Amino acid sequence: MKKIFLFVFLLLSSIGFSQIQLVSWNVENLGKSKSDEEIAFMANLLNQYDLVSLQEVVAGYGGAQAVARLVDKLNRKGNQWDYTISDPTTSTPSKTERYAFLWKTALVKKIGKAWLEKKYANAMEREPYLCTFEYGKKQFTAVSFHAITKSKQPEREIKYFQFFPLAYPKSNLIIMGDFNCPQSHSVFNPLRKIGFASALVNQKTSLKRSCKNGQCLASEFDNMYFQKTKIKKLDSGVILFYQNFPSLRQARTISDHCPVWMEFSLN
Q1: Residue 238, strand partner residues
Q2: What's the alpha-carbon Rg for the chain, to the nearest Å?
Q3: How many whole angstroms separate alpha carbon 217 and alpha carbon 209?
């Protein structure tokens, strides 16, 4: 009986250790304007995940400090967190921003330095932020991205992601963020042809100004793209955080996008 119990315990431990929960969130102007209460709300929401990717961190004063405030709140919840934050992207001054990754140090290890992808800095208004992580003795590279708005045709930027697997042939890429473009768009076909899939399908993620007939989500913009031969998606979804607020107007003080998440194992 003891041997059976030990076997089951080791099996469950092994299964649990091979899984990771990743969340990506366009936090809309994360900076000094976010109150302590709003930062605390975000920490409560994100604490259950292992690795967090944030877009739209303010590039100027207050952005890096807001990320540090968020990590401080997370560290008070029983787990030790660390983070890395990008330099400002090299777009026009009015559009520049930062990215950030946050992770539980007991589960996730950062490998080397994170970097902004300078090769496409002239082609993308906010060039992606990349960081390699190790989990369960296997590595993957997270690519965080915030595309230009829908009116500016974000597919003009997204098309360059088809070249990332060739540029980083030894990296297990997960491309995530706010694409301002649905996964059904043909611009993602080149990625699909080389074995990439989206974590979410037909799932709206951005918030309307107000709910209409019980519908509060506007567009299918946020997602994650991964190579199916290297990553097994176990589950995925969107966090409907606005349901914690009496109105969308109040929810939108946190963000106008819902976080998206994926639980996966590395093959």
Answers
A1: 260
A2: 18
A3: 9
φ, ψ for residue 240, nearest 5 deg: -85, 65
Of the candidates 240, 236, 265, the residue with the CA atom closest to the CA atom of residue 251: 240
Q: Determine the 3-state secondary structure of 259 from DSSP.
A: coil
Burial grade of 222 (CB within 10 A; 0-12, 13-18, 19 or more): buried
Residue type, 57: V
Please give the angle made by the CA atoms of 49, 197 and 217, to the nearest 5 degrees.
Answer: 60
The model's pLDDT over 18-42, given as tens digits with 9 standing for 90+, comes to 699 999 999 999 999 999 999 999 9
Amino acid letter, residue 55:
Q
Decide if 132 contacts 141 (C-beta within 8 A). Answer: yes
Contacts of 200 (CB under 8 A, 6+ apart): 183, 220, 222, 223, 224, 236, 237, 238, 260
In 3D space, the residue among 26, 23, 32 whose CA is nearest the CA of residue 256 turns out to be: 26
First to last CA, the chain: 32
Q: Give the count of alpha carbons within 13 A of 147, CB side only.
A: 24
pTM over 0.70: yes
- At 109-122, the pLDDT tens digits run 999 999 999 999 99
Distance CA 189, CA 203 (A): 18
**Residue 223 and residue 179 in contact, taking contact as beta carbons nearer than 8 Å:** yes
Q: Are strands 138-146 and 173-178 parallel, antiparallel or unpaired?
A: parallel
